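Worked example 3. Consider a protein that binds zinc ion.
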Amino acid sequence: MKKEAIVKTGEKPGRGKYCCTNCHTCVSLDSEDKLPPCPKCTNSEFTKRN
Ligand SMILES: [Zn+2]
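Given these inputs, the predicted complex is written out as structure tokens:
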């Protein structure tokens, strides 16, 4: 089984949808966007959603 990579606030992980590991709120990023803190709980760890 593949472990999900954690992406942190301030990184530029590329285009896609990233979901908060705490409250599961998702944000959509474009290729040059930086990952913001979670808009709901301010958590800084996300996983990429496929
Ligand atoms: Zn959150």
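Take a moment to read the result before moving on. The radius of gyration is 10 Å. The pocket of zinc ion is lined by residues 20, 22-23, 25, 38, 40-41, 43 (CB under 6 Å).
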